[in-house]
Amino acid sequence: MSEKPSGSGESTLTVVLALVVNLAIAITKAVAGVLTGSAAILSEAAHSVADTFTEALLLTALRRSDRPADRRHPFGYGKERYFWSLLAAVSIFASGAMFAFYEGFRTVFGDQEEQTRPLVGYIVLTLAFLLECISWTQAFRQVRSESAAHGRGFFDFLRMSDDPTVKTVFLEDSAALIGLVLAFAGLGLHQLTGSSLWDGLASLAIGLLLALVAYVLARTNKGLLIGRQADPVMVKAIWRRLSEVPEVEAVVDVLTMLIGTDRVLLCARLDFTDTLTAFELETACVRISAELRGTFPDLDEIFLEPVPRTDPDLRRRVLDRYGF
Question: Is there a single domain that holds both residue 61 and residue 36?
Fold first, then answer.
């Protein structure tokens, strides 16, 4: 197994870069939206404001989740990253999607609005697209490097990643690029047809896009907060490694839970050889734990429970859990 990737520093860089970019973009979009009267550009301004709040929440997540374990939280504060990332998803929907829906419905069903200074809108949207590309490229590079380090495909890693910060930045930056294209199309069609309907439809499309991103991120963080198991590939590798231990006759059960980014809690129920003395059993448990940590750096806490595999109550609980 490769060493654990050191992604905390790169995640911070990715989030800080996204925050600075989105703050600058939010200001320019707001000015352009007022000058042009475009609902789509105003929706994109709200989008960037939401992204700025999101990055601030993600920075809080990174800082607070790295605190060491203490008496009140013996397994550390790793899950705080999931909590603040969940709030970031709510922020995207509450301040981004809802405003875009409001602007869209107001423009589509309200009175026709005259378009003013569309050139300003085109310039601002183009500059915003170039700036967003900088942030998106950093997020893309991090996802690609971490997926390679974990031996997974790009999208497979993005789906299974236990680091919601980089996933949030990548998805919101991708949504930002798509949203800019939608705003550009709405502005252009408004100018060509003279109807503000297209501008309103673009705003509604941006709202739907943000709502979708917020849903995906909220669903991801909900699973992590509840207590998702570790990467199935890792779980199977741990099971095989324990099966090869000379003192172990059978691996009865392997339970894992993510307790933070790159931090896994492991509880393994093992049927040890009956001829072991108490001292030999204790020594074997210490050695097995050390070997597992050396092979799987993500393992943070390891609990090995000696059990008889023939116990009917234990067998029933294990079989019920896996639906056999």
Answer: yes
Enter the tokens of residue 52: 């700025």
Which class for 192: exposed (0-12), middle (13-18), buried (19 or more C-beta within 10 A)? exposed
Q: b/e per residue, 270-304, with b = 16+ CB within 10 A?
A: bbbeeeeeeeebeebbeebbeebeeebebbbbbeb
Q: Are residues 242 and 214 part of one domain?
A: no
12 & 110 share domain: yes
The closest of 234, 256, 252, 232 to 243, measured between CA atoms, is 252
Residue with tokens 């003279």: 194
Q: Check whether residue 46 and residue 60 sit in a common domain.
A: yes
Which residues form the domain of 295?
232-321
Query: In the listed set 178, 209, 226, which residue is the last one of a domain according to the structure?
Result: 226
pTM of the full predicted structure? Answer: 0.80
Would 2 be classed as within a structural domain? no
List the chain pLDDT tens, one digit each, 324 residues: 444 444 566 678 888 888 888 888 888 888 888 888 888 888 888 888 888 888 888 888 888 888 888 889 988 899 998 999 898 888 888 888 888 898 889 888 887 777 678 888 889 889 889 988 988 998 899 899 988 887 888 888 888 888 888 888 899 889 989 999 999 999 899 889 888 899 899 999 999 999 999 999 999 999 899 989 998 889 999 999 999 999 999 999 999 999 998 899 999 999 999 899 999 999 999 999 999 999 999 999 999 999 888 888 877 877 777 765
Phi, psi at 123, each rounded to 5°: -65, -45
